[in-house]
Specification:
alpha+beta, about 40% helix, globular, disordered N terminus
């Protein structure tokens, strides 16, 4: 009986230790995402207003700056961790298809309004969602930083986490915009 008790005790301590290591790994990945996000947002420090940042794999970033109208940017970080591309997003309206696509983007973004209402976002940093019913996809990172640098809605989770920690319309908009900029072989 003592042997069985010792085996069970050992088993539960191993399982518990494994879960702690998994949580620590998840939290450290989240801090890396935060670090890359801060590096990207530092490029826009001269603009004293709220900013939204969304990223995939700590390599591709989409930034929305709260101006009238919004300013939007695509940023890419290379394998060495350096920013190698900053592209201001300007809607191309030359062809009928481009005008239609831009109209769809504007409609989607207007459904997500108000983007910068801090009351719509959580105050804690989510690195896991025990209540999630579905988790899949690449790693993603999101944060809204106000003009004072305070963080709202911050999370580091799989791209598709249901329920979503932010507005569905904002999430769709950010993912569509970012995926338009990703290399085709991704």
């Amino acid at each position: 009986m003592k042997a069985l008790f010792l085996i069970l005790l050992t088993f539960f301590s191993i399982v518990s230790n494994g879960q702690q290591k998994k949580e620590t790994k998840s939290d450290s990945i989240a801090l890396v995402s935060r670090s890359f996000g801060d590096k990207v947002l530092a490029k826009f420090d001269t603009v004293k207003t709220s900013k939204i940042l969304y990223s995939l794999d700590n390599q591709y970033f989409y930034v929305i700056i709260n101006n009238n109208p919004y300013k939007e940017f695509f940023i890419r970080i290379n394998k060495k961790g350096q920013i190698d591309k900053i592209e201001k997003i300007k809607p191309e309206l030359k062809t009928r298809k481009q005008r239609k696509e831009n109209k769809q983007y504007c409609k989607l973004l207007s459904k997500a309004e108000p983007l910068f209402d801090i009351n719509k976002y959580r105050n804690d940093f989510l690195t896991k969602m025990p209540e999630a019913t579905y988790i899949n996809g690449r790693s993603s990172y999101f944060v809204l930083k106000d003009e004072n640098g305070k963080r709202y809605g911050e999370y580091s989770l799989s791209t598709v986490t249901i329920p979503l920690p932010i507005s569905t319309n904002l999430w769709i908009y950010l993912n569509k915009r970012l995926s338009d900029k990703l290399p085709q072989n991704q």
